[in-house]
Design a protein that fits this description.
Length: about 130
């Protein structure tokens, strides 16, 4: 059975869902050259498909990834501990790498950013040296 994704385009954000897995959800907000991925939940999909799923969401919305991708709130709350931060960083790094590779942009620098009590992960193009 082929994956069927449905877009929802609002005034401020783009979302993608699938009726076959109500726990899967993608939401994107664009601010200039930054794509803020505010929600990305795999539902029952395997983690190793995260990059391909992100790419499918962008294609469903007829978008290409912005210059900078930011996964918002990869961990919320105070003091999540280094193990949880590392697991979240690894998941979103792999998902973002897969997304960019699908769009012919392999290689990116990843940076954890703290914002109040929230933790984001930003992907930027590799700097040319």
């Amino acid at each position: 059975m082929a994956l069927v994704l449905h877009p929802t385009i609002g005034q401020f954000s783009w979302q993608v869902y699938t009726p076959t897995d109500h726990r899967f959800w993608f939401r994107l907000v664009r601010e200039g050259d930054r794509d803020l991925i505010t929600d990305f939940f795999l539902g029952a999909f395997p983690k190793d498909e995260s990059g391909a799923l992100l790419a499918a969401c962008y294609r469903t919305l007829d978008l290409t990834p912005g210059r900078i991708i930011v996964f918002r709130d990869i961990l919320s709350g105070r003091d999540p501990g280094p193990g949880l931060i590392e697991a979240a960083r690894q998941f979103y790094t792999e998902a973002g790498s897969g997304l960019l590779t699908e769009f012919g942009r392999p290689g990116a620098e990843f940076q954890v950013e703290e914002r109040r009590d929230k933790i984001d992960l930003a992907l930027r193009p590799e700097r040319k040296t």
